[in-house]
Specification:
The complex is a heterodimer of chains A (405) and B (81). Chain A has 405 residues and is α+β, with helices and mostly antiparallel strands. In chain A, 47% of the residues lie in helices and 9% in strands. By secondary structure, chain B is α+β, with helices and mostly antiparallel strands. Classes of the chains: A alpha+beta (405), B alpha+beta (81).
Chain lengths: 405, 81
């Protein structure tokens, strides 16, 4: 076993002018020591894993737990109070068998086929938002006009948030993600959302409809508390992630006219292009597990109880797995990318995210072939301050068609 | 090639149905794997080998197992991934 080096925090600093590249120190760590000691914000000393093979190995290994009461947060402030088990329904922070029970109740709602059935509706929502952009005229903030509302409305419809409540709901969700909103306002928005979800479950119980939440209310023995928490997980996971992929994906394509031209020329490239954007942009910095026993990993001894953070961007840019990994190449094969994770916790909503991106991204550039940044690149506010990467705003402009008269 | 699946392990991510839709499907009830063709024809074998490696929960077993030393069985590797 090699000599452990001093534990350092997870690298987060990105190179100025390279908005699509991961924090630069990740490449060095992957090269030198893909399992490296890591200092966690709460003082814990655990590990950071940066190679594709070892990231996959950790995520597939049942000796690494995802329990909320065992893992230390890799980023952000220190946790409030003592670590606690996940509340009922928060299956993303549980191990089998508890995780399995919830997961198996939900997976039927997110199958490839079921999500593809939403294509038509997602196309309608996309068209509505593109129409609104066109009516408004350039410039617009693509985040506000396109990237946030489309996944927001899709998850609202899927869950069964009543039509009249969606605008307010969206507004509160957006406040949670904004830089320009005070923390008091954010807390108020969070409280409103939580209360809303708590009230929605009994409403569905009283009057079930044709939506996911009604299906869970009538078809399972989940309690109201479990259902409220599950809804919160699905809402959070289905909104911020896809929204950031849409905006950052559009930005990346605008920055690579050759790739954008290839996509516009060949509709058949869409599915592959989406996978490559997922790999290349890797907007989730990582996920954390805790060793349930001593595990030898990549020549290091991970002791029972230690947290292990796997870096998604580092794995997805590993030259040992992807040739020329730092190049956006929509035609490459991306098999094995870990943008949705790996192992039993692999993203439940990945097929929904795929359909949303496969519909929305080509439609955006088909409607606005001259779409481009409306500000210099250095003025695009990057989400370097958020857990999920992306852009806070994306001011875009386009040439208004001259030949319409 | 024969396919066996462990439906208890399956986490319903849908990678198999996405990668080899002629051979795998997901149950409408619980989203878990259904094998449409446990002995797939040769033209689907490459995709099936990919699903066995890509499956996040390791629920798909192939007999005989993929020979990862053979180029045609390689799922991963620069350029071939």
């Amino acid at each position: 076993m090699s000599e452990p080096t001093t534990a350092a925090p997870m690298p987060t600093a990105r190179v100025a002018g390279c908005p699509f590249d991961p924090p630069e120190d990740l490449a060095r760590l992957r090269e030198e020591q893909p399992v490296t000691p890591m200092a966690y914000p709460d003082g814990h000393v655990g590990w950071l894993v940066t190679s594709h093979a070892l990231v996959r190995a950790v995520l597939a290994d049942p000796r690494f737990s995802h329990r909320a009461d065992l893992t230390h947060a890799p980023l952000g402030g220190t946790r409030m109070g003592e670590p606690r088990p996940a509340p009922p329904g928060i299956f993303t922070a549980m191990d089998p068998p508890e995780h399995t029970r919830y997961r198996h109740l939900l997976t039927g709602q997110f199958t490839v086929r079921r999500m593809r059935r939403l294509t038509g509706r997602i196309q309608e929502l996309t068209t509505e938002h593109l129409d609104a952009m066109e009516r408004h005229g350039p410039p617009v903030d693509l985040v506000e006009a396109f990237a946030l509302p489309i996944p927001g409305l899709v998850i609202c419809e899927l869950l069964g948030v009543p039509t009249g409540e969606r605008a307010r709901f969206q507004d509160d969700m957006s406040k949670l993600l904004s830089l320009e909103v005070s923390s008091e306002e954010k807390i108020a928005a969070f409280t409103t959302l939580t209360t809303f979800m708590r009230d929605l479950v009994p409403a569905k119980r009283a009057e079930p409809a044709d939506d996911l939440l009604s299906g869970l209310v009538t078809g399972t023995d989940l309690t109201d508390e479990e259902l409220t928490n599950i809804s919160g997980v699905l809402m959070g996971a289905g909104f911020e992630t896809t929204a950031n992929m849409l905006a950052l994906g559009a930005y990346a394509l605008m920055s690579r006219p050759d790739q954008l031209a290839a996509l516009r020329a060949d509709e058949g490239l869409t599915d592959q292009a989406v996978e490559e954007l997922l790999r290349y942009l890797s907007i989730i910095p990582g996920t954390v597990r805790a060793a349930l026993e001593d595990v030898e990993l990549g020549g290091q001894l991970v002791k029972a109880g230690q947290s292990v953070t796997v870096s998604i961007p580092a794995a997805n840019r590993d030259p040992g797995h992807f040739a020329d990994p730092d190049t956006l190449d929509l035609r490459r094969s991306t098999a094995g990318h870990v943008a949705f994770g790996h192992g039993i916790h692999q993203c439940l909503g990945q097929q929904l995210a795929r359909v949303e991106m496969q519909v929305a991204i080509p439609a955006l550039f088909a409607r606005f072939p001259t779409l481009r940044l409306a500000v210099p690149p250095e003025e695009v506010p990057l989400r370097t301050d958020m857990m999920i990467y992306g852009v806070h705003r994306l001011p875009v402009t386009w040439d208004v068609a001259q030949d319409e008269e | 090639m024969r396919i066996t699946v462990d439906r208890e392990r399956c986490c319903g991510a849908g990678m198999c149905a996405l990668t080899a839709p002629e051979v795998f499907d997901q149950s409408e009830d619980d989203g878990r794997v259904l094998v449409l063709d446990p002995v797939p024809p040769p033209e689907h074998e490459a995709a099936v080998r990919r699903t066995a490696v890509l499956c996040p929960s390791g629920a798909i077993t192939l007999t005989p197992p993929p020979d990862l030393a053979r180029t045609s069985d390689k799922v991963f590797g620069p350029g071939t991934a």
